[in-house]
Amino acid sequence: MDKKTEEFFDRLKGELEKSNTWPAIYLFKFIVPTDNEKIKQVEQAFNCLGAVIKTNQSKTGKFTSVSVDVQMENPQAIIDKYIEVSTIEGIISL
């Protein structure tokens, strides 16, 4: 992980610690190329967590937004999940 990414996650963790009582519901938002395998990889990352997952394809059909509402135990669990899904080719985390 590069320095800029580390700094971003450190800042995010600090903001999450201040703004929520844990455990808390967190909304993850991703954009992935419209490819069933990539969408499935995102869904599998949240498997067994009781997540509510919604997908919406772009007008052109090239991309799919994936929204995931899930209860997370703490800010570090959120960061770990962002790092886990970052290995999916073409994913953009919002």
TrEMBL record:
UniProt-listed InterPro entries: UPF0250_YbeD-like, YbeD-like_sf
Gene3D superfamilies to which the protein is assigned, alphabetical: 3.30.70.260
Superkingdom of origin: Bacteria
Protein name per its UniProtKB record: DUF493 domain-containing protein
Organism: Flavobacterium seoulense
